[in-house]
Design a protein that fits this description.
Structural class: alpha/beta
CATH class of the largest domain: Alpha Beta
CATH superfamily of the largest domain: Endonuclease Chain A
Distance between the termini: 35 Å
Low-confidence stretches: 248-258, 717-731
Number of strands: 27
Mean pLDDT: 90
Radius of gyration: 28 Å
Length: about 725
């Protein structure tokens, strides 16, 4: 029996009549509410008993972090529009004011659910001898805690009186503080004070003894107030945290872009408060004073009945409790690279190689650049950097290459949100090493993931190119699913070089042979391919689209998908996060279905397959990987790539393994309904539910097999079209 969440084997569900104005804004779903629905799905993983306990705690931390960032960026932007008097509705017809009202209601419900879930988790954790204690529960450890406070906390904490001589201190974005109402014992004189909870110390203090016993830092501070305010008695207190507007405003005519960003980062830290979280039952006088200081109304205040600072719960995911974590997984080294004794260039020369991370190690990307840095035959390296790790081996390799006299050009994107400061540091490091550092366009983010290595081989120059869907970030590459294409195809190398020339010299390419880029041609390519599928369907040819992305919100693309579906194209979409399209609506989207996969790894690759008159799966399909989601910002305000995969092996791997497994997934799938809600897939107890992450962890992929051969590579799709003439996998 098939499962409705199994898009690979199951027919489309019957469409529903929804009473919508299908020619008006009703055909779209709101972006912000769709994002909140995604974060609800993340939070629901905390209740998923198929997930290990500490991983469930990690999901709770992630959902809280997500919500904070959502407020400091998206809600901040909407508030700014509302204050400017912008009344223009979004593509879904909702005004800015109405969006803010709906967001507020949904976010409050989400935060209340987070606290409820945490209460249940504390019980489950305690059963596993992991305890989050209150001050009363830690009273027996008073002597130890006093010593710990004096040695590790007292030197970095700053008690701050609030009076005419001591004005209200600045609380930075995401800052967390205790507000105190004190009374001097000697003369009953009152004192109002703040104690910012230092971010330089772990949020949770571990206590000695059996098991794992933790005390929140704010509880420790309250226990040791006598050390901070000798001679005073505590009469009332509350905890609060603030979120500030984190949008960066950069002057278009800035003469020094790096310096302008440094100034903007300082402004962001002091941005306007857009949300105040405060503990319930806060003394009225303290609550009023805090609100007045931040110039906020009740609308921006959220009372929290429970623990503030839930993102910090990630500190409690202890690595030595393996039984409460995901089983260890070691990414595979592609056999083809091993066949060539680790020589990446030799492996790529054999044929194009497509790797799927984290199942195949991201170390291959690092090795590609390290080998290039040390190879005397390599003349030049060009590299985009959107996000990378703090001590990036990729930046190290680029610096090594530059110091060795190679021509190194690095496109560092300063507008990578929340990584701006890190990218400034990396750019200066590269410049000191002798690399050419460029920053792309003022009004466009460079989000493309490209590396090129130019190598002298005999009497010619060969360009080796890497195109990716994810960042050059070795840390996130352990948990984000992405694909990497390594090639020495001359046309793909020329295309990459033209993109770099566009970024460094504003030289807009007249033609590109095998890729499309935004903002120039990526959207038009997608629309043309979708229209071709619609034409094929009208002409009675097989017509289908399989696509995978993080977000789908561009109105032109959504309307094109609607039109194609109405023409008879069968469209199956895997959209992890935001989706503005309504699937399964009678008369609008009968032939469109959408699912979201939420699990151990964060689905991040962007892939699209067009049947091209031959059905799916087929080697005649047109298959693309991309750095871009189908959003207005990616298609019009960023530099992105859409790369067509023409190598038969890489194409088969994408169609018959990667996309097929995501479509077949049941264990981690949520099926989207026409109203924008999601239904988690269910299955009879004791029966098998296919899990795409487990499938990829347990089975080799096709493209990197080398001499090991592909006989043990499982296929999820079985049609003659996916096989070579010999009946096996294509070469």
């Amino acid at each position: 029996m098939t499962n409705p969440a199994d898009f690979l084997h199951n027919d489309f569900s019957p469409a529903r009549s929804c009473g919508l104005d299908m020619a008006g804004p009703d055909r779209f779903l709101n972006r912000e509410l769709s994002w909140l629905a995604f974060n609800w799905r993340v939070l629901e993983e905390v209740d998923n008993l198929n997930v290990p306990l500490l991983e469930r705690l990690r999901f709770l931390s992630i959902s809280a972090t997500n919500l904070d960032e959502f407020y400091s960026v998206r809600v901040a932007g909407l508030r700014e529009l509302a204050r400017a008097g912008n009344t223009s509705p979004g593509m879904d017809g909702l005004s800015t004011t109405k969006q803010l009202e709906l967001i507020d209601t949904e976010a409050r419900d989400l935060m209340a659910k987070q606290q409820s879930i945490l209460s249940n988790l504390r019980i489950e954790l305690a059963a596993q001898d992991i305890h989050i204690l209150t001050a009363a529960q830690a009273a027996e450890d008073h002597a130890y805690l006093q010593q710990l406070f004096l040695s590790d906390v007292f030197p970095v904490v700053s008690p701050l009186a609030i009076d005419p001589a001591h004005p209200f201190p600045f609380i930075p974005n995401a800052g967390f503080a205790l507000a105190l109402q004190l009374e001097r014992k000697s003369d009953k004189r009152s004192l109002r004070a703040l104690v910012p909870v230092p971010q330089q110390v772990n949020r949770f203090v571990q206590l000695p003894g059996d098991g794992y016993r933790y005390l929140p830092l704010e509880e420790l501070i309250l226990m040791q107030l006598e050390q901070l305010f000798p001679g005073y008695e505590l009469k009332g207190h509350c905890a609060f945290s603030v979120l500030r507007d984190s949008d960066l405003e950069v002057e278009d005519e800035a003469e020094d872009l790096v310096r302008e960003f440094e100034v903007a980062l300082k402004r962001r830290r002091r941005g306007e408060v857009i949300r105040l979280k405060i503990s319930t039952q806060a003394p009225t006088a303290l609550r009023t004073a805090i609100m007045a200081e931040f110039s906020i109304t009740e609308t921006e205040v959220i009372e929290v009945d429970g623990m503030l600072g839930l993102p910090d719960l990630k500190e409690l995911v202890v690595e030595d409790r393996a039984n409460l974590l995901w089983p260890n997984f070691t990414p595979r080294v592609p056999e083809r690279v091993s066949d060539h004794e680790g020589d990446m260039f030799a492996a790529i020369r054999q044929k194009d190689m497509l790797l799927q991370h984290p199942y195949e190690t991201f170390d291959m990307v690092v090795r590609f650049l390290q080998q290039a840095a040390r190879d005397p035959n390599v003349l030049a390296i060009k590299q985009t950097l959107y996000r990378t790790s703090k001590r990036s081996p990729i930046v190290e390799a680029l610096c090594e290459a530059a110091e060795d006299g190679k021509s190194v050009t690095a496109l560092v994107e300063l507008k990578a949100r929340f990584d701006e400061a890190a990218n400034i540091r990396q750019s200066r490091r590269l410049e000191r090493a002798g690399a050419h550092v460029v920053y792309g366009f003022m009004n466009l983010k460079t989000h493309a993931k490209i590396s090129t290595v130019v190598r002298r081989e005999g009497d010619r120059l060969v360009t080796y190119t890497h195109y990716g869907t994810g960042n050059y970030h070795p840390i996130t590459a352990r948990i984000y699913t992405d694909v990497s294409l390594f090639t020495c195809d001359a046309a793909l190398g020329r295309d990459a070089t033209k993109v770099f020339n566009y970024l460094s010299g504003y030289a807009q390419p007249n033609t590109l042979e095998n890729i499309s880029i935004s903002p120039l041609s990526l959207q038009s390519t997608l629309l043309e391919r979708i229209a071709t599928e619609a034409k094929n369907a009208k002409n009675g040819k097989p017509a289908a689209i399989w696509a995978k992305m993080n977000s789908l919100i561009d109105s032109d693309v959504i309307d094109a998908l609607y039109a194609a579906g109405q023409a008879g194209v069968k469209i199956s979409l895997i959209v992890r996060g935001i989706c503005g399209l309504r699937p399964g609506v009678k008369g609008l989207s009968e032939n469109i279905r959408v699912k979201s996969v939420i699990g151990r790894f964060l689905e991040h690759s962007r892939i699209v397959c067009f049947a091209n008159g031959h059905g799916l799966p087929s080697l005649e399909a047109r298959v693309y990987i991309s750095s871009a989601d189908w959003m207005d910002r990616n298609l019009h305000r960023r530099v992105e790539t859409l790369v067509e995969i023409k190598n038969a092996t890489a194409k088969a791997q994408i169609v018959s393994q990667i996309i097929a497994a995501n479509l077949a997934d049941v264990a981690q799938s949520w099926v989207m309904q026409p109203d924008g809600t999601y239904t988690r897939a269910t299955w009879p107890e004791g029966s098998f539910a296919f899990n795409c992450h487990r499938f990829f962890m347990e089975n080799p992929s096709l493209s990197g097999r080398g001499s090991a051969g592909a006989r043990d590579v499982p296929k999820l799709t079985h049609t003659d079209d996916t096989q070579s003439p010999s009946g096996g996998w294509p070469d």
